[in-house]
């Protein structure tokens, strides 16, 4: 009695005797005695070579078998991209693998993940299939990226998308916003030279021009805020309240100049600054309002006296002209008579003659009396 084993064209056989590997078998028909201890394990040449519970090295001693295999050894610090006939098939991690090279062509790309950045050799269209093995960082158009491996600075990254292998090297990308930014100081209490405590609302605009310097400063925004605070204290502390209120337009120029003295250290450019508000204590505000009211009243009285003086001077000049010119005097009389007539409803005159003659007579009498 015989056992018949048929091996197809897309198969290979592995002959074992009493559990030990003997050789591999090509396609064909094989007969073994039913009483023999021979067994044949069939392998599909379209799939990866492997025998359950058997080490690969056991079969690599067979030179004829090895001739039909391609063996790849993946180190602990490697990933290997496996391609079949030029198409991506799988990602191989640390270990030893064998593939039949009978019906398909197998190629491999070895990646050393100790250098974690994904090289241009790896087609970017494949990265979607490798999500479990890569990490992605994006740097926006208004940002600059700082790349670190194991917390050690590597280089500055321009805007774009970057891919790194997950592995023994820790990758960090810190982004710095390069757009113009605003720092607001609200309700900051300060004391003037004459011991008046007031509050300031101040603002300044800046932008980062050297990301490496700015990222090297811990709590960057807090330190810029403290710098602004110290400069304002320096300015306000040397002025009395009245001087500060009078020179408040100059504070922005002074602060901006002092800030830009430190721009190289912080890696920024300070663009502008400005004082928004000076908030006085309640009692000081009342005193200031009283002083202001008194000043305005004094100005009003001065203007009134000035206008009265001008009016008197005008009347004096008019009187002199009328005294020197009779015709002007007569015209002035007619002007006043016209104003009187506008304000009364009825004029009654006695005697002969018409109205015009009687008015003329009245004016002639007054002129004669003069």
What is the overall silhouette?
Answer: rod-shaped
Largest sheet: 3 strands, antiparallel
Question: Hey, roughly how much beta strand do the residues contain?
Answer: 35-45%
* Assembly state: single chain
Helix content: 25-40%
What does this structure look like?
By secondary structure, the protein is an alpha+beta fold. It folds into four domains: 2-112, no CATH class; 128-177; 181-280, Tetrahydropterin Synthase, Chain A (2-Layer Sandwich), CATH 3.30.479; 325-370, no CATH class. It contains nine helices and 19 strands. It has helices at residues 63-67, 211-215, 220-236, 241-246, 250-260, 263-266, 282-324, 326-343, 355-369, and strands spanning 2-7, 11-17, 20-25, 28-33, 38-44, 48-49, 69-74, 78-84, 87-92, 95-100, 106-112, 134-139, 143-149, 152-157, 160-165, 171-177, 181-191, 197-208, 268-279. The strands form seven sheets. A three-stranded antiparallel sheet has the order 3-2-5, with no helix packed on it. The protein has a three-stranded antiparallel sheet with strand order 6-10-7. Strand 17 and strand 18 form a beta hairpin. Helix 7 crosses helix 8 (326-343). It is rod-shaped, with a radius of gyration of 52 Å.
Features:
alpha+beta; three-stranded antiparallel beta sheet; Tetrahydropterin Synthase, Chain A; single chain; 34% helix; 370 residues; 4 domains
Write a short abstract of this structure.
The chain has 370 residues and is of the alpha+beta class. It has nine helices and 19 strands. The chain has four domains: 2-112, no CATH class; 128-177; 181-280, Band 7 domain (Tetrahydropterin Synthase, Chain A, 2-Layer Sandwich); 325-370, no CATH class.
């Amino acid at each position: 009695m015989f056992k018949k084993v048929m091996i197809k064209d897309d198969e290979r056989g592995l002959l074992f005797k009493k559990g030990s590997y003997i050789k591999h078998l090509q396609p064909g028909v094989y007969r073994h005695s039913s009483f023999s201890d021979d067994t044949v394990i069939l392998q599909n040449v379209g799939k990866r070579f492997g025998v359950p519970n058997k080490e690969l090295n056991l079969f690599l001693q067979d030179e004829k078998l090895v001739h039909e295999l391609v063996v790849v050894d993946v180190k602990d610090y490697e990933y290997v991209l496996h391609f079949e006939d030029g198409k991506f098939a799988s990602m191989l991690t640390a270990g030893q693998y064998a593939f039949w090279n009978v019906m398909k062509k197998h190629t491999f790309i070895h990646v050393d993940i100790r250098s974690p950045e994904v090289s241009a050799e790896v087609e970017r269209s494949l990265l979607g299939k490798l999500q479990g093995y890569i990490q992605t960082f994006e740097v926006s158009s208004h940002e600059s990226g700082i790349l670190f491996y194991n917390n050690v600075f590597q280089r500055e990254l321009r805007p774009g998308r970057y891919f790194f292998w997950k592995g023994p090297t820790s990758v960090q990308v810190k982004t710095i916003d390069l757009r113009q930014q605003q720092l607001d100081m609200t309700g900051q209490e300060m004391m003037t030279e004459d011991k008046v405590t007031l509050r300031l609302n101040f603002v300044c605009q800046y932008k980062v021009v050297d990301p490496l310097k700015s990222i090297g400063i811990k709590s960057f925004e807090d330190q810029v805020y403290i710098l602004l605070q110290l400069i304002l204290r320096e300015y306000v502390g040397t002025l009395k309240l009245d001087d500060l209120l009078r020179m408040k337009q100059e504070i922005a120029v002074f602060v901006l100049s002092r800030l830009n003295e430190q721009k190289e250290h912080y890696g920024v450019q300070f663009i502008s600054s400005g004082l928004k508000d000076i908030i006085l204590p309640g009692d000081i505000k009342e005193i200031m309002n009283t002083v202001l009211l008194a000043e305005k009243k004094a100005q009003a009285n001065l203007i009134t006296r000035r206008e009265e003086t001008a009016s008197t001077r005008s009347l004096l000049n008019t009187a002199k002209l009328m005294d020197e010119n009779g015709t002007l005097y007569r015209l002035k009389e007619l002007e006043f008579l016209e104003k009187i007539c506008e304000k009364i409803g009825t004029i009654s005159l006695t005697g002969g003659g018409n109205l015009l003659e009687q008015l003329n007579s009245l004016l002639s009498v007054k002129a004669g009396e003069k």
